[in-house]
Amino acid sequence: MEIGNVNVSALAAQASDAVGIYALKKAMDTQEQAAMQLISAIPAPANNPPHLGNGVDTRA
């Protein structure tokens, strides 16, 4: 009788682990999507005018 209980508890632990791993993967996928949305929302950097940086004083 105890062997049957051990098998049942082992199967329950495996099922619990599988559900936990599935939930973790779903949470990671959700976080990935949120991060990609944040990255795509970053505006492109503004281009500086071509005359900037041409007259740098290196003796100061």
What does it look like?
The longest helix has 39 residues, at 2-40. The mean pLDDT is 86. The chain is mainly α. The protein has one helix and no strands.
Number of distinct beta strands: 0
| Uncertain runs | none
* Topology pattern, helix = H, strand = E: H
Q: How large is the radius of gyration?
A: 29 Å
Q: Into which percent range does the helicity of residues fall?
A: 55-70%
Task: Give the tags.
single chain, 60 residues, mainly alpha, 1 helix
Describe the secondary-structure layout:
Layout: H1 2-40
Short note summarizing the structure:
The chain has 60 residues and is mostly helical. The chain has 1 helix and no strands. Helices cover 65% and strands 0% of the residues.
